[in-house]
Amino acid sequence: MKRLLFPLLFVGLSASAQSLSKPETRVIATIQNQLPETFQFLEKVVNINSGTLNKEGVRTVGKLMADEFEKLGFKTEWVSLPDSLNRAGHLVATRQGKKGKKLFLIGHLDTVFEKSLPMEPFTRINDSTATGQGVNDMKGGDVLVIAALKALHAQKLLDDTSITVYFTGDEESSGGAESRTDFIERARQCDLALAFESAQGLQKVTTGRRGSSSWTLTVKARTGHSSRIFNELGYGAIYEAARILTEFRRTLGQEEYLTFNPGLIVGGSEVYYDNQTARAETVGKTNIIAGSALVKGDLRFLTEAQKEKARARMREIVDKSLPLTKAAISFNDGIPGMEPTPANDGLRQQVDKISRDMGLGPVVAVDPSQRGAGDVSFIAQYMPCLDGLGASGKGAHSIEESLNTKEYPLLIQRAALLIYRLTR
């Protein structure tokens, strides 16, 4: 494995030092000095598989991070979940004070890479890129939080602050609403939330992101000899499923921020589906009219109102059955949407000011259609929220996932200054 030294860059400071306070310049210098150990720790946690269902791996990564928080004066605890959820649990680190805003910082310990997949270890490709499982989504973001807090602690700037750090263990495949009960309760005791999912470079942050839910369409029809289709036996289940999906696309396909993807479709004489494995089987012949069809998909939306309006329209379409067919659709909630509110944009403006003060230029909001669902959305209705503050890179959720190692130090610096200014 080729190893390269990461440059220690003081980008922007010489041009805009007058815009930063003395404590802030000391924080940036501390972050730069700590970069070697920051990258060493990142490599260590990336090289531990923590796929959502690898509960031991998730807990191991959580323990390593808990040790780091405890060195910074945080009290840590592990939030266990019921065995029925088959999830590892969550790491919480807290400190209580009276100064400034009460912050809720969000990350997650798990990755999409389960233990059964080939291991892609942390590898330094060149002076600007490192690769590895979860290196930007989101172990890079978790380590960024620790590095920022570590620098503030070194300068005694965490004294008398109130910060809750909540790293979930099942963001990539949630154990359901029960898994987020404690998360929501603790967040509501704070004033605002900062989430450290992957950054889209230095110039963008996330003030809004779409929510996700799922839907299941089932169709039953008369079956019999194929020569009698369209006549006394009606249209069959597959034609009815095709009609419904076409109408979904035709009537709702152009609405901004709304998508509805049919990810699985099966049809035939009989249909079988296993929820545990997400596998489907069907039996049918070309000379038999299909008696059953099943479609499973997701629905993504920006607001709850948009979600409910789309669901109502989808139900109307489903109810207009072709002759001798009967369809039904059901919906399951997943992660709510995070509406881009003025309060969220107020946080973006503070990041924009810090970025300009650092000499890095303006920061704008990402188009919500470019972000998937995330943990921050569970609490967006209760407080101002900002996301996309973590590590930047490419290829998340793939074997080509990478970290931009030149931007990473600057993102740590920006996060540290944001936490500092919010807690003054």
Topology readout:
Layout: H1 13-16, H2 22-33, H3 35-46, H4 55-71, E1 75-79, E2 90-95, E3 99-108, E4 123-126, E5 129-131, H5 139-154, E6 161-168, H6 181-187, E7 192-195, E8 204-205, E9 211-221, H7 236-252, E10 259-268, E11 270-274, E12 279-283, E13 292-301, H8 304-319, E14 325-335, H9 342-357, E15 364-365, E16 385-386, E17 393-394, E18 402-404, H10 407-422
Parallel strand pairs: 3-6, 3-7, 7-16, 8-15
Antiparallel strand pairs: 1-2, 2-6, 4-5, 5-18, 9-13, 9-14, 10-13, 11-12, 17-18
Which key terms come to mind for this protein?
single chain; 424 residues; alpha+beta; Alpha-Beta Plaits; 4-stranded antiparallel β-sheet; 10 helices
Task: Walk me through the structure.
The chain is an alpha+beta fold and 424 residues long. The protein has two domains: 13-209 and 338-422, 3-Layer(aba) Sandwich (Aminopeptidase), CATH 3.40.630; 212-335, 2-Layer Sandwich (Alpha-Beta Plaits). Helices cover 31% and strands 24% of the residues. The protein is built from ten helices and 18 strands. The strands form five sheets. The chain has a six-stranded mixed sheet with strand order 1-2-6-3-7-16, with helices on both faces. A four-stranded antiparallel sheet has the order 4-5-18-17, with no helix packed on it. Strand 17 (393-394) and strand 18 form a beta hairpin. The chain is elongated, with a radius of gyration of 25 Å. The two termini are 44 Å apart. The model is unreliable at 1-16 (pLDDT under 50).
